[in-house]
Amino acid sequence: MTDTSSPESPENTEAPGLSRRRLLGTAGAAGAAGLALGAVGGAGVAAAVNSDGEGPAALTSVGATEVMFHVKHQAGITTPLQSRGHLIAFDLAPGAGRKEATALLRRWSHVAKQLMAGRSLAGDDTEVARDAGPSSLTLTFGFGRTFFDRTGLTAQRPMELDPLPDFSSDHLDPRRSNGDLWVQIGADDALVAFHALRAVQKEAGEAARVRWQMNGFNRSPGATASPMTTRNLMGQVDGTGNPKPSEPDFDKRIFVPESGRPAGQEWMAGGSYAVVRRIRMLLDDWEKLPRGDQEAVIGRRKKDGAPLTGGDEFTEPDLAKAGPDGQLVIAADAHSRISAPEQNGGAAMLRRPFSYHDGISADGTPDAGLLFICWQADPLRGFVPVQRKLDRGDALSRFIRHEASGLFAVPGGPGEGEYVGQRLLEG
């Protein structure tokens, strides 16, 4: 049932106790100060109870961090990497169309706004995250190519949603690829993320059915002595070359421009396109390589992510540098060379992945790797040219396998009083 109650309505108030709302209220100045502490490692942790032994203690910085729902660009795109993630795709149920999709996006938007603010849901809330704050929770919503067919909105479908080309390294499972609707959930607490996942699944009701779901993780905030780029399951520092919001062309590369869209596609202004790939890492083979060989495959030192040509993680690699033997220090097929923007006509995308581990496969090897998510204003200028080049000669290719794929149009953030996708569904 659609929840139309206000956050301040009686249904959303609770008796005194250790509720999410009450915890948020106790965070106060300590929680606000904790945001800065969390940004540099979060070494301090609040006691479980107050010094007098009664009542809830203030939230730690991790729990108190809130990401806004009503923003120019949807949350979960430029939000710092979270420690827990769920990706879930839905297909509209047989007979469901634009009307049902509109009601569903209204429900999902209400759930997202409430939970991202750390509020409990009215009615049959599972209370899985009852004792936690928002914990950087984000919910991000996108539309797949087939959504527009199902809702009679094909005239509003952007050409950027044209199917991705086939790549020779693809071993794609169609049952775990694509979908009418896509939801990305991220949080810095596993229970908060799971709570949001269950809420999204329940609110789908009879309107949509789960097509696939993938669960991921990253390093927890405060786990390192100082903030650093995350590592993937190969042990490599992963994400050094990401474009940065401070760069003058960042918005142009990552977000759809506010003007100049074809008629009927103005709804994507301020949005972005997400390419989602489930990339299995052949860890048994990778881990047999000596460290030096692993570094040669990537073109960077494993210890600190610095290029093999010297410096630190953020030193620009010298792609022309040769060693005493006359050979390139960063090999011609090194992953970092082939994926570098300057090697791809300036093509760039914002990579925001999660690692995953789904146990052991029937052949006895780890079913583990990367839930690769990249964001760009146009996937034909971002993801596609880079992946084509990697597909032709990346040394890393023999250690990975692309097993699922999806492309989704993620509209701009909802304004006050709006739900996600309203400009498309009611435009």
Automatic annotation (TrEMBL):
Catalyzed reaction equations: heme b + 2 H(+) = protoporphyrin IX + Fe(2+)
Obligatory cofactor(s): heme b
GO biological process, one term: iron import into cell
Any one annotated GO CC term: cell envelope
Any GO molecular function: metal ion binding
Compartments reported by the entry: Cell envelope
Domain Dyp-type peroxidase N-terminal: 74-218
Chain intervals for the UniProt region annotation (Disordered): 297-322
Domain Dyp-type peroxidase C-terminal stretches: 229-413
CC cofactor note: Binds 1 heme b (iron(II)-protoporphyrin IX) group non-covalently per subunit.
NCBIfam families given in the database record: Dyp_perox_fam, tat_substr_1
Name of the protein this chain belongs to: Deferrochelatase
Species this chain originates from: Streptomyces candidus
